[in-house]
Amino acid sequence: MIRRARPADAPAIHALVHRYSGRDLLLPRPLTDIYERIRDFWVAVEAGQVVGCAALRIWWHDLAEVRSLAVAPEAEGNGYGARLVDAVAAEAKRYGVTNLFALTRIPDWFERRGFEVVDRAVLYHKVWGDCASCPKRNACDEVAVVRPLVPGAAERLLHPDRQLVRLVAHVVPPRPRGVPERPDRAPLPVFVHEDR
Question: What homologous superfamily is domain 1-96 in, according to CATH?
């Protein structure tokens, strides 16, 4: 069952996020942050236990993020991850948001669910809002993916105005050496981060 999270679910959500942050698949989130943002979370429940979670963060009138997506290993393969993303997408759409994005280390999973890889620079609201305080800000290895919630909504993200991208590229965290911004795709020629 997929449902809105309740305050009593916060410790279970924290345990899931902590489990995956320990494997460097999610960023850590303090329990207090989860309590503060419990209204943003959805959970998957099996036999009365929280076995998955995902949160929605709205960044702009047309842009929202699915974050803290995690499913317990013992519950994998039951479709909870996809159903959690769908719940978050439906909530974003209810608010009139037209694009859902994620930063991830497993872009293939998202691509199988209708997301497409984009340059992180087009998500400048996220970059300016979160990345400056991220522990990986000096060598981000996450890939940005976006899914339009209405047909055609992601065109400006998939085919960005290169002038706009150039204006914000200096704030995009650099990638570790040898990791392309858009794997298996031609890079956007906007900015080269150099080691200092």
Answer: Gcn5-related N-acetyltransferase (GNAT) (3.40.630.30)
Nearest-angstrom CA–CA distance, 140 and 170: 14
Burial class for 100, CB neighbours closer than 10 Å (0-12, 13-18, 19+): buried
pLDDT in tens, 104-162: 989 999 999 999 998 887 886 666 666 666 666 666 778 889 999 998 888 878 777 77
| C-beta of residue 140 within 8 angstroms of C-beta of residue 174 | yes
Whether the Cβ atoms of residue 51 and residue 72 lie closer than 8 Å to each other: yes
Determine the Cα–Cα distance for residues 165 and 188; give it in Å rounded to an integer: 9
> What span, in angstroms and rounded, lies between the C-alpha atoms of 135 and 25?
13
Task: Report which of 79, 144, 150, 83 is spatially closest to residue 115, judged by C-alpha positions.
Answer: 144
Q: Which residue has the tokens 């976006």?
A: 146
All structural domains of the chain with their residue ranges: 1-96, 98-185
The angle formed by the CA atoms of residues 143, 12 and 103, to the nearest 5 degrees, is 10
pLDDT, tens digit, 9 for 90 and up, residues 47-80? 999 999 999 999 989 999 999 999 999 999 999 9
In this prediction the pTM is 0.80
Q: Estimate to the nearest angstrom the gap between the alpha carbon of 155 and the chain centroid.
A: 19
Residue 171 identity? V
